[in-house]
Amino acid sequence: MSAQKNWLAVASAEHVRRGRELGFMQVCHGKVAPLRRVHPGNGVVYYSPTTSFQGKDKLQCFTAVGVVKLGQPYEFDMGGGFRPYRRDVDWWPAQEASIRPLLDILEFTAVGSNWGYQLRFGLFSISDHDFKLIAETMRANVAKVEVV
């Protein structure tokens, strides 16, 4: 993935698990603008600070890793007037993994104790180094998934 961009998205584990199961990503409370920065072939990693949305539990794990599929962001009717935007993703078989053992070696956490500040944006670019390291830590099985 040398010439392609990689992204770290942030959401609760329960939301990520739903998206992983159904093959999509959704960020920033369903806003379309952040998803327009993400393109087919880009790598995506989800980080989940908590297990549940607005939960107080600390999970602090990477919960999904994969590659964005062809297509554009699309609106999805979840009922009750909530129509978030999504992108389709080929999620790789992987295990959830704690961020803690990686804090000293990830480039995006090199800023020191304030590394969590950028998580507030919900989606930001990460290096190939970080993407590969996270995927390896999650024991992602990239050989089973074809980028389409």
From TrEMBL:
Name of the protein this chain belongs to: UPF0310 protein MPC4_380022
Organism, as annotated: Methylocella tundrae
Stretches assigned to the EVE domain: 6-136
InterPro entries noted in UniProt: EVE_domain (IPR002740), PUA-like_sf (IPR015947), UPF0310 (IPR022996)
Protein family (similarity comment): Belongs to the UPF0310 family.
A Pfam family assignment: EVE
